């Protein structure tokens, strides 16, 4: 029986761009990818099985080895250190993490509050700046926090910048650029090295064409 490579795909924002990239790399992904709600899609001819996961869960599936490889945002990788290798910057779903807040406001002198979906990234950033802060973890609508008085600043993703502008917020510092990455389980990489290297080579060609 031939080997199967299991790929954890992030549903949501990254999905379409990732599917597009795989198709450009020559993988024949059926229309199921565009229209179905199935969470496991197997393509026997390609020796591939896709599992469709919540973006933040992709590294979990890969770390535990139930997926050999996966596609995850650099933001997710930075927030939770995982025992996986990062093989390729896919250069898709570009955005960045930034500190933002109400314009012309100083942070509270004592333990300013920082609201974010990324508590570890935010804590590390302010530690490096030598600032003692209180992190408040939120799960969405982060921009509400400074407006409603929950926090002095937020650490959040900025893409077009529209959410900041429409909520009267400004960016104070850019922390790190974010794109999606191809990640691999270390054991899978040893055992299925040929299949994985083939996939990386095919994707690398497309990525470099798209970037240049
Ligand atoms: N404007 C953006 N906002 C958030 N994430 C973005 C943006 N642009 C690109 N990304 C990338 O997409 C990933 C998030 O995708 P998506 O918003 O579909 O998932 P999610 O955070 O689980 O969303 P939700 O919790 O709203 O379901 C991030 O990890 C990041 O790498
Ligand atoms: O710079 P922009 O293009 O406006 O994109 C940035 C916004 O998009 C994301 O929120 P999302 O839409 O995922 O909603 P959420 O608040 O539920 O996380 C992110 O958290 C910002 O709020």
TrEMBL record:
<keyword id="KW-0368">Histidine biosynthesis</keyword>
<dbReference type="InterPro" id="IPR024893">
    <property type="entry name" value="ATP_PRibTrfase_HisG_short"/>
</dbReference>
<dbReference type="Pfam" id="PF01634">
    <property type="entry name" value="HisG"/>
</dbReference>
<keyword id="KW-0808">Transferase</keyword>
<dbReference type="InterPro" id="IPR001348">
    <property type="entry name" value="ATP_PRibTrfase_HisG"/>
</dbReference>
<comment type="similarity">
    <text>Belongs to the ATP phosphoribosyltransferase family. Short subfamily.</text>
</comment>
<dbReference type="InterPro" id="IPR018198">
    <property type="entry name" value="ATP_PRibTrfase_CS"/>
</dbReference>
<feature type="domain" description="ATP phosphoribosyltransferase catalytic">
    <location>
        <begin position="54"/>
        <end position="204"/>
    </location>
</feature>
<keyword id="KW-0328">Glycosyltransferase</keyword>
<comment type="subunit">
    <text>Heteromultimer composed of HisG and HisZ subunits.</text>
</comment>
<protein>
    <recommendedName>
        <fullName>ATP phosphoribosyltransferase</fullName>
        <ecNumber>2.4.2.17</ecNumber>
    </recommendedName>
</protein>
<keyword id="KW-0067">ATP-binding</keyword>
<comment type="function">
    <text>Catalyzes the condensation of ATP and 5-phosphoribose 1-diphosphate to form N'-(5'-phosphoribosyl)-ATP (PR-ATP). Has a crucial role in the pathway because the rate of histidine biosynthesis seems to be controlled primarily by regulation of HisG enzymatic activity.</text>
</comment>
<dbReference type="GO" id="GO:0003879">
    <property type="term" value="F:ATP phosphoribosyltransferase activity"/>
</dbReference>
<keyword id="KW-0028">Amino-acid biosynthesis</keyword>
<comment type="pathway">
    <text>Amino-acid biosynthesis; L-histidine biosynthesis; L-histidine from 5-phospho-alpha-D-ribose 1-diphosphate: step 1/9.</text>
</comment>
<dbReference type="InterPro" id="IPR013820">
    <property type="entry name" value="ATP_PRibTrfase_cat"/>
</dbReference>
<keyword id="KW-0547">Nucleotide-binding</keyword>
<keyword id="KW-0963">Cytoplasm</keyword>
């Amino acid at each position: 029986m031939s080997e199967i490579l299991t790929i954890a795909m992030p549903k949501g924002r990254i999905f379409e761009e990732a599917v597009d990239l795989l198709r450009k790399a020559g993988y024949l992904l059926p229309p199921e990818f565009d229209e179905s709600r199935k969470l496991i899609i197997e393509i026997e001819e390609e020796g591939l099985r896709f599992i469709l996961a919540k973006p933040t869960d992709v590294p979990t599936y890969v770390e535990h080895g139930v997926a050999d490889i996966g596609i995850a945002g650099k933001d997710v990788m930075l927030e939770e250190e995982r025992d996986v290798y990062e093989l390729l910057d896919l250069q898709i779903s570009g955005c960045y993490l930034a500190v933002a807040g109400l314009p012309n406001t100083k942070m509270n002198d004592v333990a300013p509050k920082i609201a974010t979906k990324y508590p570890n990234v935010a804590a590390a950033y302010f530690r490096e700046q030598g600032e003692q802060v209180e992190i408040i973890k939120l799960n969405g609508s982060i921009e509400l926090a400074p407006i409603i008085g929950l926090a002095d600043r937020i650490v959040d993703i900025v893409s077009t910048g529209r959410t900041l502008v429409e909520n009267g917020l400004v960016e104070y510092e850019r922390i790190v650029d974010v794109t999606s990455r191809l990640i691999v389980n270390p054991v899978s990489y040893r055992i299925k090295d040929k299949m994985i290297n083939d996939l990386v080579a095919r994707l690398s060609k497309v990525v470099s064409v798209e970037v240049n």
